[in-house]
Every structure is written in structure tokens, then in C-alpha cells.
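Researcher: If convenient, please comment on what follows.
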Amino acid sequence: FPVTIMKERMLTETLRYFLDSSESHGLCDKLLRALAGRAGLALPKKMLNVIAASEWSTDAGRKVDVVATVRASWDCAPLLVLGIEAKVGSKESASQISDYQLALAEGFPNVNKHLFFVTPSGYAPNTANKTRNSECPVTTLSWADIAKCLTADCSDSSVALEFAAHLQELVQEKVEVNSQGSFFEKRVLGSANKAIRAHYKKLIVTGK
């Protein structure tokens, strides 16, 4: 896989890991609440259950980087669905964000939806459809914003803080990685727990 795709997949897989409350990071729903705060979304005070999936497929054959379903309890219907589309160096494809808004709106009827567009500088997407904001609004964030969410709201996790620090370094210094993902292996995986190391190694070897 090209370097840009490899970086994006590693970063989005890390977001998926920290967002999913069933993973072993111990953060529960803290990253969800940090992102919701950035978007002005109101959430119940009770701890929420989050299942986050990578590469969520739309009916049109496109793939949203991360889609998270949020429930008050595991046996309840979703009360919120969050999508994340992240960029490092790649550009938007034709009607990409508009298509994702539509796919989330159609895929999760009668549920609140929100899409986050994450880029190095936090620029607004060119392909969003404002007429679909009532069904699926879009919030733009930079990778530095994500790092701040992890630092401020997930500070009780050393793994989250480690990733946030190196994410800030990646943004500030524009650190490049080779096709084997050596930057992430040496600098991020060094202090990550077994679960997240396994995710990275799978990405590095298979690209999935």
C-alpha cells in the first residue's frame, strides 16, 4: 500500500480502537464524549456503550473509515451513530463526503447521525452536501484536535497519551513513514498494549 494510505489506515484504526468502549484501553466512552463535545452533541450522563467498525461499506461500494454505533446498553437500539473520514495526504474523491452523509442517513434511519472529517489542518470538505446537514451534519477537525481530545479527556490512559504525543509530532514535523510503517512500529507500538500492537501489525502486513 502507498505510504499515505498506510498512514491513514493506522491513524483511523487507532481512533477506532480508542472509540470502541469494548476494547481493553479502559477509557470506556471518554473519546466519544470528547468528540461529541467538539460537535456540540448532547449525550446522556450515564456511561454509554460504543461499538466502532473500520472500513464500513456503503451500498454504493464506498467505505467510511470508522462508523461507531452508540447505545445506552448493549441490548438497546442505537441512539447515535458517528462516522469518521480521515485524511493524511490523500484528497477527497468525487462527492465522497456527500455520499457518506447519504449512506449514514439511509443506513441508520430514525437515529441521530454525525460525520467527522479529520485532516492535518482541519480544512472543511469540498464534497459535503449542506442540504443533508439536517440528516447527517459534518464537523471538521484537525489531527491536532484529536490529540487534544486524547490529552484532555483520556489522560488516565498512558497508551492514549503516548499516541497523542506522537500524533502531535506527526502533525507538527510532518514525519514520514515508509511502506512498512516503521515510524509507528518504533515510536507508537513501543509503549502500546498487546491489543493495539496486534491491530498495527495486521495493518502493516495485510493492509486490512
About this structure: The CA atoms of residues 60 and 187 lie 37 Å apart. The first strand starts at residue 49 and ends at 57. The mean pLDDT is 79.
